[in-house]
Amino acid sequence: MVTPKLGEDQIYTILRNAIFNADLPPGTQLIESSLATAFGVSRTPIRSVLQRLKYEWLVQVIPNRGSFVYCPTPREAEEIFHVRGLLEPEAVRLAAERITPWELGKLEALLEEESLCYIRNEPHQALQVIDEFHKTMIRASKNNYLIRCLEETLSLSHIILTFYDVSGANNSHTFKEHQDILQALQDKDADQAKNLAHQHIPSIMGDIDFSKSFNHALSIEQIITRYTP
């Protein structure tokens, strides 16, 4: 196979998409030399790509072992969602008081896109839209320290849901909960928004199935073929 000339951003996008689609499932080792050979580049851009993926919590670097596709363990997931359950409802309460018309418009557009993803049977794409929906809400709180804490927590939550979420088979409750939260924000009902967000976190946890198994990882050559136009 002749590998097309790819830049660092393209390599990053290919690997990121492969991880989010579970073609590189949790625990898959990403070997710099093998990646460099497959992509036809030196190790320098590969090392940079792995650092970018590490920053997004998609890759874990284990000393003396290497880089691996990362996903929190069930115990870590419980701790992550516990923190999220404490912080996100307060952020949503503040958002109800401080949200701008532009931010409300963005949330409405994201909710519409979420609905379309379900119609098109694109659960992974829906999760990315949902991630942006939640991040838009917390940014509307205008509390920079709360936003900073929650963005990391939301990124980790997104990884967990990407690999282990089963709501694609029954997403009606998730979408309805998002609609209700948005309505509370539109009404500037801070208490209702906080209560709905507080109920929403356990609902998300209920869609996680850690017994879910994955097929073996695709080879890098197969991934390049699949994700290169």
Number of helices: 10
What is the CATH superfamily of the largest domain? GntR ligand-binding domain-like
Averaged pLDDT:
90
Annotation, overall tally of beta strands: 3
Distance between the termini: 14 Å
Number of domains: 2
For the biggest β-sheet, the strand order reads 1-3-2
Our Rg estimate from Cα atoms comes to: 19 Å
How much β-strand is present in the residues?
under 5%
Look at the structure and give the CATH class of the largest domain: Mainly Alpha
Label the structural class: mainly alpha
CATH arch. level architecture of the largest domain:
Up-down Bundle
The SSE order reads HEHHEEHHHHHHH
Q: Give the overall form.
A: elongated
Low-pLDDT regions: none
Helix content: 55-70%
Main pleated sheet = 3 strands, antiparallel
Predict the CATH topology of the largest domain: Four Helix Bundle (Hemerythrin (Met), subunit A)
